[in-house]
Amino acid sequence: MIPRMDLPLTLSFLLGGLLVVSALAVGAQRLLGARFGRFRILVAVVAGFTLSSPLLMPVLAPFATLRPDENPGFGAVWVMFLIGMCALLIPMALLVVAEALVPSGSVPGPVEFVRGLRGRLSRGRRYSQITRIAVRHGLGPYLRGRGARPADRSARVRLARSLREALDDGGVTFVKLGQVLSTRRDLLGPEFIEELGRLQDQVAPAPWEEVEPVLVAELGGPVDRVFAVFERVPLASASVAQAYTAKLHSGEDVVVKVQRPGIGKVVGKDLDIVRRLAATLEARTRWGRALGVRDLAEGFAAAIREELDFRVEAANMAAVAARPSGSVAYPEPFPRMCTERVLVMGRLSGKSLASVGADRPELARDLLDTLLRQILLEGVFHADPHPGNLMLLDDGRLGLLDFGSVGRLDGSVRAALQRFLLALNRQDPLGVTDALLEVVPRPEEIDEAGLERAMGQFMARHLGPGLDSVRLFADLFRIVSAYGLSIPPEVAAVFRALATLEGTLVALAPGFNLVGEARSFAGRHIAENLAPESLKETLTQEAVALMPMLRRLPRRIERIASAAEHGRFAMSVRLLADERDRRYLTGLLHQILLTVLGATAGLMAVMLLGTEGGPVVEPRLDMSLYDLIGYNLLAICAILVLRVLLLIFRRRE
């Protein structure tokens, strides 16, 4: 226990130390021109304060004999200032070294670490559980990157069965992942497609006692008060939600989709595991890099997160239903009754597509025509048209369900996709290449001639009479990747939807000619655009857009001619008009200037420290004026060099 008489002295010492540490922290950040985390700056300042004492003690020792009434002199004051600069340089150097070895943000701070410790432990247990499931089903070598692709079909069938069983045991998220993969004929072989297609989303329903509180909390009242009739037995039960039939007080028959209690936390944890697992597979396996499993996982995670918010699905459903199609029907939502975990929509009367049979080419044609019209003409399209989201209605039409994933395209992208499809229909490699470079961001350097030849070979391989189009989208993605083209997310959603649709069409009508039907759609679209009414409307719109420019054109030509006649014609070009360019150039000049000043200060310091003689300003240290100026310049050089190094390390990140 601290004696009572020493308490004021102890408090003064602690207060003084706190002020010194705070001053060093503020000074280090201001001189480096950057902000650091509180923990990092505290550790650097305390370490610098601790290290500076033994290093500077020999310099301070001669001043310990000064009497209170003795004048220290001008030299002593500057030496004290120099000592303060050295005490400040040590934490600055520690901060720069820490930035080089452990960049800011790469390691969580202690507060974030403690907050996330519980979550990491929970994810670790789940990850261990998933790993045990994979090992139990014989997938351990593939997780370690040592599994080879089976050569014979029987081995591939066994591997596909093991994968399906592991995904089924993994739970909600992994069942969804298997269902998505079962539609990707462009990525997986037929054995995997067939086996993963057996993953059913029909699971044991949650008891009504667990579901009812969700409905009451989301709808703001008892179920019997909100609905005129509500069937407690679920119509369907899936891994994420389960559906019930009900009747509103106004008389409409509806389907109520209720999210399973606590599913959000489970899915969030599993999605984190899927992303980590995808990153590991892409880093350690050739097939993971070839498939781009990390991007697939990110797209899958985004789709699942949207699917967990039923308000997004209700908005998507309303957007698609606002553009009705004669051959495909959509359920209409009741927005005032739709919340994050409850979705109320009109009921479609029919049966599942699985019970229809696999020889309905007219339904396949209607589905393809509807999706292409949504993509190319309307700009709002269903992004996940797999068989589980389709049903055959009593009136013979198709019903499209589950609008948790919907894509949106602006007019320019739709126009470019239309030109792409029309050029494919004409088998025009140049037109296909030009349209593709309008759809995707154009890189600065690209081999357009090579891309045109690749697209010509692509069309010759897939678009000829009687040719198979199963690998159509896989080859298209391969060409895009080979020439360094990056597909925007909205265009990638189009390709994913078409690839999924291809598997659905094959299941609905084996032997369905996707390419031929798409060409027929392109031909009908050309006919629509060439109709007199469409041409007249297009010309009218273009004329209205050009009219303001045409009215201003004569006056502008007159001003240009007058300026040229009187010798006042000039052109003004604004360099660095973009703020980002100015900021980049300013930062670069700043870094160069600091480097030059630091090098100059260091060179002058070395020259002064090596110069003999000069007036003595501090006899106790035998320090001349040249030495004093040299040491100060050396400190300035160190500060500037540390600031430049920090700029380099931060820019690298």
Tell me what the structure shows.
- The protein is an alpha+beta fold and 653 residues long.
- Among the domains are: 13-59 and 73-101, no CATH class; 348-530, no CATH class; 579-652.
- The chain is 64% helix and 7% strand.
- It contains 24 helices and 13 strands.
- The strands form four sheets. Strands 1, 2, 3, 4 and 6 form a five-stranded antiparallel beta sheet that branches.
- A hairpin with a 4-residue loop joins strand 12 (616-618) and strand 13.
- Residues 1-5 have low confidence and may be disordered.
- The chain crosses the membrane at residues 41-64, 76-98, 584-609, 629-649.
- This is AarF/UbiB family protein.
- Keywords: Membrane, Transmembrane, Transmembrane helix.
- Belongs to the protein kinase superfamily. ADCK protein kinase family.
- InterPro entries: ABC1_dom (IPR004147), Kinase-like_dom_sf (IPR011009), UbiB_kinase (IPR050154).
